[in-house]
Amino acid sequence: MSLFLKPCEFVMGGASLEALPPAALPEIAFAGRSNVGKSSLVNALTGRKTLAKASNTPGRTREINFFNLAERLMLVDLPGYGYAKAPKKEVARWTRLVKSYLSGRPSLRRVCLLIDSRHGFGKGDAEIMDMLDDAAVTYQLIFTKSDKVKASGLMQVTDAAYALIKRHPAAHPHIIVTSSEKKDGIEELREELEAMAIRT
């Protein structure tokens, strides 16, 4: 049985570094632009519909949300960066919080950097990649919403991504293409992330 189908519970949401839970379990963080599909991917991975609150409104996730997966792994849903229907001052605060977490959390094992298959890379994605390279935090590109784009377009954006990560030392060499709706790539990503869980 996949670890991701075992009990997974919401622990807490933190709006500041001081409010985050102790770094007791290995953590996998899900980062990306607003509305890229972070919450939907967490739900698809864990086989739930409403574990993480997904929304069509960009900027819905405003805290760092922690989910305990069978006492072996912590899944971390981060606020999106970039466009959001919120005051600029508040968006700037989320962005600072996300960057502080990503560059300084001792239990962070990997960042899943989500990229919308329809749009490819944006300025914010490049900034996060540079920051993770500087912090020596391993990150893996995960393309989302692959069911929303034609095969030719998908190949174009993933080819560009493979060329790009060759220039980024902290980037994982393998890219996973997913669809939370169609469940494409979900089992592959589960297997990749389970390798970082505490052994029992």
Chain-wise SSE layout:
Layout: E1 8-14, E2 27-32, H1 38-46, E3 64-69, E4 73-77, H2 88-104, E5 108-116, H3 123-135, E6 139-144, H4 151-165, E7 176-177, H5 186-194
Helix pairs in contact: 2-3
Report the CATH architecture: 3-Layer(aba) Sandwich
Low-confidence residue ranges: 55-60
Q: Name the structural class.
A: alpha/beta
Integer-rounded radius of gyration: 16 Å
CATH class: Alpha Beta
Number of domains: 1
CATH topology: Rossmann fold
**Average residue-wise pLDDT:** 89
Strand arrangement, largest sheet? 1-3-4-2-5-6-7
Discrete helix count = 5
Key terms for this structure?
200 residues, alpha/beta, Rossmann fold, seven-stranded mixed beta sheet, 5 helices, 7 strands
Structure write-up:
- The protein has about 200 residues and is α/β, with parallel strands linked by helices.
- It has a single domain (about 5-195), classed as P-loop containing nucleotide triphosphate hydrolases (Rossmann fold, 3-Layer(aba) Sandwich), CATH 3.40.50.
- It is about 30% helix and about 20% strand.
- It is built from 5 helices and 7 strands.
- It has helices at about 40-45, 90-105, 125-135, 150-165, 185-195, and strands spanning about 10-15, 25-30, 65-70, 75, 110-115, 140-145, 175.
- The protein has a 7-stranded mixed beta sheet with strand order 1-3-4-2-5-6-7, with helices on both faces.
- The longest helix has 17 residues, at about 90-105.
